[in-house]
Design brief:
Structural class: mainly alpha
Strand order of the largest sheet: 1-2
Number of helices: 9
Order of helices and strands: HHEEHEEHHHHHH
Number of domains: 2
Shape: elongated
Strand content: 5-15%
Oligomer: single chain
Radius of gyration: 21 Å
Amino acid sequence: MIKVERIESPTKLTVEKRKELTEEYLMTSNNVWNQDYIKKALLKMSNNKCIFCECRLGEESKYIEVEHFHPKSLYPEEVVDWENLLPICKRCNGLKRDHDTKLVPIINPTLIDPREHLTIKKYRFFSKDELGKKTIGVLSLNDSDRLFLPRVTIGNAISDILDGLGKWVGKIKDNSTIEDQNELICKIRNLLKSCQPDAEYSTICSYALFEDDNYYGIKDFMQEIKIWNDDLVNLEKNCLKYSLIEYKNPKLIV
């Protein structure tokens, strides 16, 4: 889960249109929010990801569902209020159900930075306070089969890549060619790109990357031979703006 900036309401969702759709819902209970222009705008806002678990929407059963942060069953007057709509996957929507977010608040990532209330250790989310605890519980963010095990798989894949790169750097350290250096830049750039806010499971990828000692050994080597360039610096900075890990490593930019 990362902080998401809410974009402007779709131009078609005018005050008059919201009133019309709300009245239709109150009279018929139709899925009035199921509009292409609403769903496209929500997907753009979240970089095509579920607002809560960060899975890529539109793949297999992970198609977008329009989430009413304040549930429509309890607050029908907000059924098409733009500020109340979020992109969500079927799993998270099924778990949140009609949880009353006004009576018992959870994190709305368009309003609250998850880093203030959540952290991640060993691929599990942990709460910093009651709001974080409720969010983990309501959304079952440590669901073993659907979320935790995929996180471990992602983490192991990144660990394997870093382990291989670390060993390779050890072999070329004293005699690296331009080709070697360019390949190393590309591979580290790709890892950092997997941690950017528009990437699927970016929170998990950044955790796996920054918790691995190999990353810092490789970075040290690249800085030593002066190939740790501005592009990599900016990518790392952007990762750190969203990541949930606690930054204690002095080699990270904070």
